[in-house]
Design a protein that fits this description.
The protein is globular. It contains eleven helices and eleven strands. 33% of the residues lie in helices and 21% in strands. By secondary structure, the chain is an alpha/beta fold. The strands form two sheets. A nine-stranded mixed β-sheet has the order 1-2-3-5-4-8-9-10-11, with helices on both faces. The mean pLDDT is 97.
Amino acid sequence: MPHFDMPLDELRRYRPDLTEPDDFDAFWEKTLSAAREHDLDARFVPVDVPLSTVDVFDVTYAGFGGHPVKGWLILPAGTSEPLPAVVQYIGYGGGRGLAHERLLWSAAGFAHFVMDTRGQGSGGSVGDTPDPVGSGPAYPGYMTRGIEDPHEYYYRRVFTDGVRAVEAARTHPLVDASRVAAIGGSQGGGITLAVGGLVPDLAAIASDVPFLCDFPRATTLTDRPPYREIALYMQARRGSEERVFQTLSYFDGVHFAARGRAPALFSAALEDLTCPPSTVFAAHNAYAGAERSMEVYAFNDHEGGGPYQEGVQLRWLAEHLTA
């Protein structure tokens, strides 16, 4: 696949003229305040796994609406002092997976909290968190559930779960609450940007080939799912465009990036047809924090840097969480 988006020098300057809702901050403040009316009730149940290098906890905490959200907390075996923590969000369709699939960050000496994604977990990795909230008509997938009303939109619940995941991780006595990073790729990268914009005191964020950014461009530039779900919804429901894009403006990673303050590491792939590089650079270029950097993979699709980017993250997070 040849490069299809802007040249790299234009990508580094790209700043889309997006309309941010006047009540963006009030919307999210009310959303999180409502979630916090429910006791977080974070529970960490030890799991007997045949692994000698880690201690594993099955996590449940109250997310949006007080709904139970699952996760894993994975610690280096025998941890006795609080550790810096990595809170990880998962790509589209996947769930928290099995504990033995998530060993990288504990091997690097971090506490590792993995959030399950409500309603997902039947594609790529298994999940265990239902989404008890229904919606109106929607195209198959998750992108259009409740898409004509920001209060009903699916990602309002997911982003709230993401914030509450940080809060849950911080309650564990072996997590250093002052040294917590949020990370994720694709959908997980989009959730990371949202959490980075809503939690002001994170130590760092790392967002790889993030999804859920610059919706107006993404939905007209690529015909690959999941963005294509939005176009197909509007194809069937003619005249819904204004309502749809108004809803999506409350969830655009570019707007969250403009509120992020923690040191941030991004990555983009220039042949990425799932999350076009211009949409990733839109979030990076809007990022408000004083420290931001971008790793570019010139000849990769949505796999991005893969294990190479994990290597970059390992070194970068060690500098920001253990210095």
